[in-house]
Design a protein that fits this description.
Blueprint lengths: L6 H16 L4 H8 L3 H8 L6 H10 L4 H9 L3 E3 L2 H9 L1 H11 L4 H8 L3 H13 L3 E3 L5 E3 L1 E6 L5 H15 L19 H28 L18 H15 L21
Parallel strand pairs: 1-4
Antiparallel strand pairs: 2-3
Length: 273
């Protein structure tokens, strides 16, 4: 395959690079296994000199099914849930749990072990998710999401309401002083445009965090727990934070409500104005 501008090839190569990165497979490793120089691998991953046999060899080393890779490159993945999808997921917590696990790379055995779901019930959930076009079963039975991993739900929609009922209380009730509570907090003056830029950074960071999860799963690291992430930016009502000393300042200035018996703060008990 020569380096071209065909969009189909570019999508295949993009998927291949993403899979290699997610599995923690480095160019040096590919070069060693295939007996070529590292610059050659870099050229192949850009499409320069990449024959079908070489592509197949790279996929085999990374345990990637070439048919799956080619199929994924031509299928469009939605970046937003449909309203019907949201309603079904919001109404069935078990189904939603299975879907979001698959969204983050979990396979059947992972879900069975992590959630203790009986196999017949898990298979029923997967079939339902397939009908909703939320999950696809690739060659060799591998599960993958039918939507982008950064898929969004609608503000005020069924999944947002379900999040408020079930997930948000878990975040709000956490002990921020706990040794396993890692968080960052700050107060920064930002315009609406600035907050939009921060939200875009959240999306990028979210993708990086998902990549870390993929790499740890591929490496088979032990001690991995499902971990909650909540990134938020919103304007603060500074008036609520400054009310205490603002009230004290007003009192120091002698600004008391006129209740018919007002007197200055300097008046001593027993003295009249």
């Amino acid at each position: 395959m020569s380096q071209t501008r065909r969009p189909g090839l570019a999508m295949v190569l993009s998927e291949l690079r993403r899979e290699l990165k997610g599995r923690g497979i480095r160019v040096r490793q590919l070069a060693t296994e295939l007996g070529v120089a590292e610059p050659t691998i870099w050229r192949w991953l850009r499409g320069d000199g990449l024959t079908l046999d070489r592509l197949d060899a790279v996929c085999a080393l990374a345990d990637i099914d070439l048919r799956d890779l080619l199929g994924r490159s031509v299928e469009e993945e939605a970046d937003r849930f449909t309203l019907a999808q949201e309603r079904v997921l919001a109404a069935d917590r078990g189904l939603a749990l299975v879907f979001f696990a698959i969204l983050h790379g979990a396979q059947r055995l992972d879900i069975e072990q992590a959630f203790g779901l009986p196999r017949d019930r898990l298979n029923s959930h997967i079939e339902r998710l397939k009908r909703l076009d939320l999950v696809r079963v690739a060659t060799r039975g591998r599960l993958r999401p039918g939507v982008k991993r950064t898929v969004r739900w609608r503000r005020g929609g069924p999944l947002a309401a379900a999040f408020d009922r079930t997930i948000k209380p878990l975040f709000m009730s956490m002990d921020f002083g706990s040794i396993d509570a890692d968080y960052v907090s700050d107060i920064v003056p930002l315009s609406p445009a600035g907050r939009t830029r921060v939200h875009a950074l959240f999306e990028t960071l979210r993708e990086d965090i998902q990549l870390i999860g993929e790499q740890e799963r591929a490496a088979g690291l032990e001690g991995r727990d499902w971990s909650g992430l909540l990134m938020m930016v919103r304007p603060f009502d500074i008036g609520e934070m400054t009310a205490e000393w603002a009230g004290a300042a007003a009192a120091d200035a002698g600004l008391f409500p006129d209740d018919g018996n007002a007197r200055s703060r300097d008046a001593k008990p027993g003295q009249s104005q």
